[in-house]
Amino acid sequence: MLARMKVLLAVIFTVLALFTVRLMYLQLVMGEEYAARSQQNATQQRRIVPLRGRILARDGTVLADDRVAYDLLYRGGDIPDWPALAALLGIEGEPRQPDRTKAEELVNGAVLAWNIPDELVPAVEERVAGTPNLYLRERIERTYPTNLAAQTVGYTQQADPVRNPGYSVNDLVGVAGLEAGLEEVLFGAAGTRQVEVDNRGNEVASHVVLNAQPGQDVVLTLDPQVQRVAEDVLASALELVNEDRARVGLPLEEQVHGALVALDPRTGEILAMASYPTFDQNVFTHRPSDPAAVAAILDDGRNMPLSNRAVEAYAPASTFKLVTASTMLEYGYAGPNTPYPCSATFRFGGITWQNWANYHKGNYDARHAIADSCNTYYWYAAADTPNWTQGWAPFIEDVVERAREFGFGARLDVGLPEEKSGRVPDQEWVRAQPQYGHGWLPGFTLNTIIGQGDVLATPLQVAQLIAILAMDGRAVQPHLVKQVGEQLFEPEVKQLGGRYWSVFKEGMRMMFTDYPSRSILGPSVFPVSVAGKTGTAQTPRGGDYTHAWFMGFSPYEDPEIAFVVFIEYGGSSSRVAVPLARDFLAGYWSLRGVEVAAKP
Questions:
Q1: Is 412 inside a domain boundary?
Q2: What is the DSSP-derived secondary structure letter of residue 456?
Q3: Which of 154, 348, 438, 456 has the most crowded Cβ, counting Cβ within 10 A?
Q4: What is the pLDDT of residues 255-268, one digit of tens each?
Q5: Count of the separate structural domains present in the chain
Q6: Predicted model pTM
Q7: pLDDT in tens, 196-240
């Protein structure tokens, strides 16, 4: 019995000794680590989302802004006086319990009310005070008050830390347009605050460790009034398009697709960049989002409202003939008065190449060829250059070089990630195409010099072309951004070589003094002088499914506005693009106090 008692006492003392040693170890050896862990459990590092920089028009009109939004979140459990709170916020039924299978709701709780109106926030704060399972969350929401230039301004969405390294889920990141292209200056820098929480995770105290740095405001060159005129003109184009469709026996269109770009050729400032159809940017940024509204935009593969057609690339058609004419005269292949036939056809390689007019108009000089957009004039001129039938020859090589001097084949880098570079095909490009194993053929030259075949240009690039022509070769870099923070943008300015600027401008003016378009924008019907050039581009759909172009400037004597109208599958440029140009100029000059009669 005594022996058993001794064994029991020994066991008890051994256990007590082990507990004592363990306690001493935890207190003396692990004490600091556990104290640190305890502190970590009571405090958290939380990110401070910076205010995103605003995007403003040139006159201060706000195109993109931030607002502080308040949401009511619920962690589960009983809510005292829930009926009164629900009535205040217009919530029906019982509160939705948090879904513990969703990480966001597991951490933050379920959202009972999004975007609580500012006037109700104080009352809600009063009711949730002291209620640990309810709290108001502040977040930054991007807003677009005007929806002007939607594709150009772009939009934001909540960041995905996987796709957007360095961002948190509460950050806003630019997705398209200038919001994406200027992300670095618009975002700013996130801050950090140290937060003390209780055992339920409720915040009881905090202090800022690192202040968030707001993004910089960006002022654009866009004139909101001119932008509105441009968008309204595009929206009104359906009637003209369908009149032309009916004329040629094509099915009527349900929606217009096109772009209008206008700039000041003296400064390079883009005053309007419109793309149609457009969309409501707030659909993507307002929470909770409307899935049906989002899907209606994202899934609209026919109309593609997110596409900024002002910077998409298309065959430039006869607008490119000004590049060809410039090459002919400036490189000495022909003189301004050198005559070439404006015939109905041109025969080469066993193929009959058709002019747009099906009868012989006699011999044209450079001015009349521009004004009347005569295809065969340019083909006969090309056939008069050395070795052109051998394929890649001096004339087409010089056309390519001149096109690149005018800005074709390269992005203009106005801040839009979506901007395409277009294409000026050359011998190297042709050799790289599997279907062109034969190399550059003379037929490629005939197509390229009238803006067809493989040459592609954006409406923005065509706008730069007409601006340079309007200013006698003075090329001011087109730009959308006027100012970032306090820093003004200084555009690059260069002078293109040439002696015949007046010839090209006279030809474009003659379109409205000597040819049928004078009934639309000629001196007898429009109070301000205009010069310009049409383009009707063949497309893969064939037949009369053509793109309609017009580029122009005004006034002819002292240009202050240069612009491009482009209607995708719009049909005839003279029957669609020119009347739209008239409507745009009427709106533009009316803004400047010039009385313009209603369109005929």
A1: yes
A2: B
A3: 154
A4: 999 999 999 999 99
A5: 1
A6: 0.89
A7: 766 555 566 767 778 889 999 999 999 999 999 999 999 999 999
Contact 492, 454 (CB under 8 A): no
- Contact (Cβ atoms closer than 8 angstroms) between residue 90 and residue 262: no
Q: Is residue 497 part of a domain?
A: yes
Q: Is residue 452 left, alpha or beta, with left meaning phi > 0 and alpha meaning psi from -120 to 50?
A: beta
**Cα 400 from Cα 185, distance rounded (Å):** 37
Contact between residue 226 and residue 552 where contact means Cβ atoms under 8 Å apart: no
Burial of 491 (0-12, 13-18, 19+ CB in 10 A): middle
Domain around 379 = 224-591
Q: Are strands 218-220 and 55-56 parallel, antiparallel or unpaired?
A: parallel
Q: Say how many Å lie between the first and final Cα of the chain, rounded.
A: 125
Confidence band (pLDDT; 50, 70, 90) for 496? very high
Do the domain assignments include residue 20?
no
Q: How far is CA 460 from the centre of its chain?
A: 12
Contact 172, 65 (CB under 8 A): no
Nearest to 50 by CA among 208, 173, 214: 214
At 368, give phi and psi (nearest 5°): -70, -35
Q: What are phi and psi of 474, to 5 degrees?
A: -80, 115
What CATH code is carried by the domain that includes residue 406? 3.40.710.10
* Alpha-carbon span 330 to 335, nearest angstrom: 9
